[in-house]
Amino acid sequence: MRRPIQILLQTTIPSIADDWHIGRFSMLRDHLAGLVDQDGAPLCAVTTRDRTMPGAPDPVLSTLDRSDFDQLWLFAVDTGDGLDPEDCAAIGRFRERGGGLLVTRDHMDLGSSVCSLGGVGNAHFFHSKHIDPDKTRHVIDDRETTYISWPNYHSGANGDFQEIAVVAPAHPVLQDPAADDGLIHFLPAHPHEGAVGVPAGDPSARVIATGTSKVTDRRFNIAVAFEPSGAGGPAVAQSTFHHFADYNWDPAAGCPSFVSERPGDGLSRSPEAQRSIRHYVRNLALWLAGRAPIESRMAD
Question: Are 11 and 51 in contact (CB under 8 A)?
């Protein structure tokens, strides 16, 4: 019997009630914890936590390379100070030893502490740090929330879903045997997603999925995958943590008070989109662990 995949779900902020703390990713946690392998054994063992106060190394992140974790799902929800240099160094060593890494952020400069990560951090473009080299993208896309500037791609309302485009050849994390064409097509929507792209000079990385703005019809990158290489284990850079947040899976779960946009209910009315999103999460967990996204199921 295989050992369960040891997954750390981690934010880059302390446990602040009125913010995107790790408790707001409980549906993701429960889904991962409920997956079982073909023998009915738990597929994943999930640990969730927020970081300690900024200004000093986080005791878990700064020693990640010496931990038993197989993968880190890092939700960068900070305003620029979410990672200490010792945290970044340990995360780098963790990936060098083969650890799997998902790094996701949000609009404008939210989560910009990942710029100090290098590697997967270099796949994230922000408003004032590590700016997208394509200057035509230095424009506002979402025009509803006027205080948020670019990058802010509008893929739909929180609580709705978006149809993504799979970039050929289809990556394993985007394959879905239950779909008519064998591919995942839906992820949660968000009014202002961030920007990701392939870092210059990194042959291990490629864009695997794109979305389309509901405001401008412009295509934008949803996810960049890094194949295992001499630089380290498998990794994914994703445009927004809202693809994984409770509020986007079910707006009734609530959100911080500073969220002002009116939510939708499209996802709650689409069993196909719900299944697609959960299948994508399962695929991520398997692929980041170095396993093929084979069939697994939810525990009863």
Answer: yes
Beta bridge partners of 210: 165, 221
Cβ atoms of 196 and 223 within 8 Å: the answer is: yes
Contacts of 35 (CB under 8 A, 6+ apart): 42, 43, 44, 282, 285, 296, 297, 298, 299
Say how far residue 155 (Cα) sits from the centre of its chain: 15
Whole-angstrom Cα distance, residue 213 to residue 276? Answer: 20
- Asked whether 223 and 239 are in contact (CB, 8 A), the reply is yes
Q: Are strands 235-238 and 100-104 parallel, antiparallel or unpaired?
A: parallel
d(CA 229, CA 237): 16
**CA angle in degrees (0–180, nearest 5) for 8-12-18:** 110
| Model pTM score | 0.97
The rounded distance, in Å, linking the Cα atoms of 51 and 116 is 16
pLDDT tens across 68-125, in order? Answer: 999 999 999 999 999 999 999 999 999 999 999 999 999 999 999 999 998 999 999 9
By residue count, the chain amounts to 300
Give the 3-state secondary structure of residue 172: helix
